[in-house]
Amino acid sequence: MPISPSPLDGPADGLAAASVLRAMADELEDAEVERAMRAGWSWSQVAEALGVTRQAVHKKHLRRLLLAQIELRRRIGE
Amino acid sequence: MNRLITAQRLAPVLVTWGIQQSVAHQFEIEAKRDGAKVIEAEHMLLALTASSDGDAAKLLHEAGLDHERLASALQDERRRTLAFAGMTAPDKLVPATEAESPLSFGTSAKAAFKRALIGARHERHRAHLRGTDLLAGILEAELGTVPRALAIAGIDRVALALRVRGVN
């Protein structure tokens, strides 16, 4: 018979924390990548600081940054 | 339900369930106010508590679950969750520009819709779902943000869910 765990105790707290921290990490990354690009950082610098490839940052954030009408230091796609 | 189904696109369908267009619009407002990228079950529940008419709103008011109480319970839930990780809620971050305006539904919202449909299937003579079906679908989640917040607020979620289904 399956157990009916409480939504508040034991693993439920830890799993909820993992979920909230993941969302907060995404939110923080969006905000700080935008801040860096507004300050004139290059894609490579942002990628290096995040510890991921430039392609990964580009893929994840380009559309949003174009919408934010940030003057990107490097040509798009470079 | 795929990622492209947004609250805006779903609104005409929800109207046939007796959920006003303004409530569907409120799903998105609540999600954005929360800084979320998708609409989750808690945002739909907040929108339903903010509504003033319809059976769903009436049942929520009877249970003493108004928008203020739910919002405060969700805040308490967030605080408790972060405390588990040894953190306190951070100050508001520099807001990032949002990529897309119409938000789609997150996993907990999709699960609520699914439960709404499954629960309503018993009554075959009914042509449409109702707002109360969606409320029941939200309340029937046993784990996750909504049941956590309701437990913190001292709301008997199971009893309320049963009452909501009873109206259907």
Structure description:
The complex is a heterodimer of chains A (78) and B (168). Chain A is mainly alpha-helical and 78 residues long. Chain A has 3 helices and no strands. Chain A has one domain (12-67). Chain A has helices at 11-38, 43-50, 54-67. In chain A, helix 2 packs across helix 3. The model of chain A has no long low-confidence stretch (mean pLDDT 89). With 168 residues, chain B is mainly alpha-helical. Chain B is 60% helix and 0% strand. Chain B is globular. The model of chain B has no long low-confidence stretch (mean pLDDT 87).
CATH architecture of chain B: Orthogonal Bundle
Which word captures the global form of chain B?
Answer: globular
Identify the CATH homologous superfamily of chain B.
Clp, N-terminal domain
Number of domains as seen in the coordinates of chain B: 1
Count of alpha and pi helical runs of chain B: 9
Mean pLDDT of chain A: 89
Q: Compute the number of helices of chain A.
A: 3
Please, what is the oligomeric state? heterodimer
Order of helices and strands of chain A: HHH
Ends of chain B: how far apart?
23 Å
Largest sheet of chain B: none
Helix content of chain B: 55-70%
Shape of chain A: elongated
User: Pair with the most extensive interface?
Assistant: A-B, 28 and 27 residues
Strand content of chain A: under 5%
Percentage of β-strand residues of chain B:
under 5%
